[in-house]
Amino acid sequence: MSLVIRSYPGNRNMDKALIAAKFGKGDLKFETPPFAMMTDNKTPEFLAKNPVGKVPVLDTPEGSIFESNAIARYVARKSDLALLGTTDIEIAHIDQWTEFYTHEFEAGLFAILPHIFGRNKFEKDSQFNAEIQKIKKSLAVLEYWFSHDASRQFIAINRVTIADIILVVGLNAAFEFVVGEESRKEYPKTIEYVDRLMATEQFSSVLKKNWKTEDAKF
Amino acid sequence: RNKKTSIMSLIVRSYPNNRNVDKALIVNNFGDGSVKIEVPPFAYSSDNKTPAFLAKNPLGKVPLMETPEGTIFESNAIARYVARKTAPHLLGTSDIEMAHVDQWIEFYTHELEPGLFTVVPHLLGRRRLDLEAIFTLNMQKITNGLVALEHWFNTDSTKQFAATNSITVADIVLCVGINNTFEFVFGEETRKKYPKIVAYFDRLMTMEQFSKVIKKKWREEDVSFTSTVTY
Predict the structure, then answer these.
(1) Cβ(B75)–Cβ(B21) under 8 Å?
(2) Cis ω on the peptide bond leading into residue A56 (within 30° of 0)?
(3) Which among A47, A70, A88 has the least Cβ separation from residue B84?
């Protein structure tokens, strides 16, 4: 099945879908044709698929999809349905951790990365610190979760799921751009979890580990 | 379990009238009657800090749903679970339908909710912003989200629902969110810019499943940085 990614090349928000595809039979073919940001994502044709005008958008034989988590879930559904859960409660636990990630962790990350990349700087360092605190609070929750049950290997159930894929991609980005070595020492179980998953073939063939030494500064 | 004869009891731990619980209640109104949702008394700010509560939801937030199979947190995950049990068509009936339901729930989470979560607690006096610039920025975020949603309904005038051509959880999430936006943030003059969104909301509210749960009390004037609102 041919899946066309509408985005600038190397959009890391697509990593989630690419990792999910690794759990399949290899019959999904991703293409990333040339795409001019600021023009191609403003055309009436693009906005008819994604009125927000953001990337990535995935064109499939069945229709177009926007929002990287929705794209990742679709690819997971086409690759290995077990990634989404096989019982109602499994599915719910995968959903809840994906929602945790989106509401608690990603909110802070998406607010802070544009500042760090110089694209949308905060006015005051109190804003910057507030977002760092959100991210650290989420990490503390994860640390508690993994410490609470020493046998816990994955975030939602007892095997890898789309929740792990979405979470690990986000954590990797946080450790690459925001949270440095000294801070990471406060979350040993979470680091262990990320390292363990990133060492697996499906993750390591897509993600590169390039973690920061120092914490990001305002 | 014979769905027609046995009732599944689901308990929601939350303060009363938590609008995030409305999503699950509306979902259940589309169901086959096999699920009963109860929201017993709950001492918010103490009951959600106990070790027992945190072991189920380490975030300590509400709502939390207790089911015979285990506990679930995050209101969207709860709403989806209820749908799966009693009205699975609300989640989509094909891979692409499910993706479209997902994308519109994600849209709400990313494009409308962050602005509302910043502006509404400020207006309620619960978490005042110290910089007017942050208020203005978040009002703009909400506006951008509304513009995108209005555009969506404008691209295809036959479109009755957000995600597919029948009612889904995406519509339920959006309906609750739109109601909050027009009750707490944007007044009549601004609403005139979004006739398709207003028509969509009103159309959903003609369904009893929605109107039994959501009360429409939209504000007259837009808010400003110094406004206050009450629930």
Answers:
(1) yes
(2) yes
(3) A88
SS3 A2: strand
Bridge partners of residue B12, in order along the sequence: B65
Per-residue HEC secondary structure of chain B comes to CCCCCCCEEEEEECCCCCHHHHHHHHHHHCCCCCEEEECCCCCCCCHHHCHHHHHHCCCCCCCEEEECCEEEECHHHHHHHHHHHHCHHHHCCCHHHHHHHHHHHHHHHHHHHHHHHHHHHHHCCCCCCCCHHHHHHHHHHHHHHHHHHHHHHHHCCCCCCCCCCCCCHHHHHHHHHHHHHHHHCCCHHHHCCCHHHHHHHHHHHCCHHHHCCCCCCCCCCCCCCCCCCCC
Indicate the pLDDT class of residue B187, thresholds 50, 70 and 90.
very high
The residue of chain B nearest to residue A91, with distances taken between CA atoms, is B81
Mutate to test the interface with A, among B71, B86, B95, B164 (most CBs of A within 10 A): B95
Hey, what are A194's tokens? Answer: 């990320």
Over residues B137-161, the pLDDT tens digits come to 999 999 999 999 999 999 998 999 9
The pLDDT score that the predictor gives to residue B175 is 98
* Residue among A13, A2, A9 at smallest CA distance from A59: A2
The radius of gyration computed from the CA coordinates of chain A, to the nearest angstrom, equals 18
- State the Cα–Cα distance between residues B149 and B146, nearest whole angstrom: 5
| ipTM value for the complex | 0.96
A101 and A142 Cβ atoms separated by less than 8 Å: no
Give the dihedral sign, CA A155/A158/A163/A164: positive
Instruction: Encode pLDDT of B44-53 as tens digits.
Output: 888 888 888 8
- Residue B81 is nearest to which of A63, A88, A145, comparing CB atoms? A88
Q: Give me the residues paired with residue A59 across strands.
A: A4, A64
Is B98 close to A66, i.e. CB distance below 8 A? no
Residue B35 has a pLDDT of 98
Q: Which two tokens stand for residue B205?
A: 């509210």
- Distance from the B45 Cα atom to the nearest Cα atom in chain A, whole angstroms: 17
Select the residue from B102, B134, B156 to test the A interface by mutation, using most A Cβ atoms within 10 A. B102
A46 close to A40: Cβ distance less than 8 angstroms: yes
Contact status, residue A100 vs residue A46, Cβ threshold 8 Å = no
Q: Inspect the interface and report whether the beta carbons of B77 and A77 lie closer than 8 Å.
A: no
Residue B183, token pair as written in the block? 């009750």
pTM for this model (two decimals): 0.96
Tokens matching residue A152: 């816990």
DSSP three-state, residue A59 = strand
